[in-house]
Amino acid sequence: MFPDEDSRPITAPKKKSRTGRRILTFIAALVALVLVAVGGFVVFLNQKVSGNITQEELLPKAAPSATLPDGTTVAIPQAEVGKNYLIIGSDARPGETASRSDVIVLAHVPEDKSAVQLIHFPRDLYVPIPGRSKDKINAAYAYGGAPLLVSTLQNLLGVKIDHVAKTDFEGFRAMTDAVGGVRVYAEEASNEGAFAIREGFNDLNGEQALAFVRERYQLSEGDISRGRRQQAFIKALMLKAISVDVVTNPIRLTRFVDAATDNLVVDKGLSVATMRSEAFALRGVRSGDVVFVTAPFTGFGTAPNGGSIEILDESGIAALGKALRTDTMDEYADVSVIP
């Protein structure tokens, strides 16, 4: 399906974690990318995407400054330092009313459009939440939806989040089936009930992929290990989505675009035209220019309420925020280590 070296996830101690050849963000970029790639098919797909995507108020009211964890304030937004896109994946099962953000990825696109840095925030990362005490970062989404999660990250990093896109795990399943399944590398084996995940490469359909990205209890580092699984899956799906088998097959491509956008919700400022123009601006980006980074933490602990947490690395998060504010993420990614 793919050469092994393209499909295998890259983790520490290598400097850069690499994924697909051209990408803007986690889900929306896939859609924008294929729109650009298929030429004369664009008009039809543009109509389909526009009809599928929902726009909502996902951003908080503009704030002139952010209060960092150490109590200092920084002005936002900073000019000419690239853009930041927050990607939220919810794992609410059918029929559930509770909202959980199990995938939190901040995509940074530098001003010169030369790269994309994807920062994964573990859902149990223990952080300050505006208007509340410290809690797991995904609690911000449960308390106040996307706007509060955006405010939490803006205060944590001291940056402006320009756009938000959210989907759910059912969308992952539909996209996987639409491209005919994916080959994913698993660092650890696990038993998913009706089927087993073996260490190494696994060919997964949509249902199997959904179980793969949800599992954490059987994995050695719980939520952190699950985050690496999600990164491996994202990479595999993107590689398949931009493969010749999909891009040159109108039926498969249409199904994928439909699946990718069916449950996609974006902020009111993120139009299909914006996605497409941003993707076009990134047409020179290749796999070596796209990096996965995990938000820094120092270890595992227990919250006052007894819940398991990842302890925030305050000096590390300060360095990450500074790199984002000064558009020097390339330098940060070169020296950072993914746990």
Automatic annotation (TrEMBL):
Repressor keyword on record: no
Residues covered by the Cell envelope-related transcriptional attenuator domain: 100-241
Pfam families recorded: LytR_cpsA_psr (PF03816)
Keywords for this protein: Membrane, Transmembrane, Transmembrane helix
Similarity annotation: Belongs to the LytR/CpsA/Psr (LCP) family.
Transmembrane segments: 23-45
InterPro entries hit by this protein: LytR/CpsA/Psr_CW_biosynth, LytR_CpsA_psr
The protein, known as: Transcriptional regulator
Superkingdom field: Bacteria
